[in-house]
Amino acid sequence: MKYGYARRWSRSNSAFLGAFLGMMIAAAHQVHHALAGEIPNESPLAHIFLELVGLAAGTAILGAALAEIRNRRQ
Question: Distance between CA 20 and CA 28 in Å, rounded?
């Protein structure tokens, strides 16, 4: 390995880690709702599901995009 050489980031691994991070953020947000006693007026299952899927998908796309940008700048 040469000095200054950095390995390329895997887009799929970055997307997986981003999705995992999004799910952890969504779970922490739901714990906050439960501890604060703020129950949404809509169906709780729909509320939790939409936030979980939305955050997981968004952070997965963000993770893959960051890996792609980082790999192109090498």
Answer: 12
Q: What is the pLDDT of residue 4?
A: 59
Please report whether residue 53 resides in a domain: yes
Secondary structure in 3-state letters for 2-37? CCCCCCCCCHHHHHHHHHHHHHHHHHHHHHHHHHHC
Residue pLDDT, tens place only, 9-68: 999 999 999 999 999 999 999 999 889 988 778 888 888 899 999 999 999 999 999 999
Is 44 part of any domain? yes
Q: How many domains does the chain have?
A: 1
Residue 57 is part of which domain span? 11-72
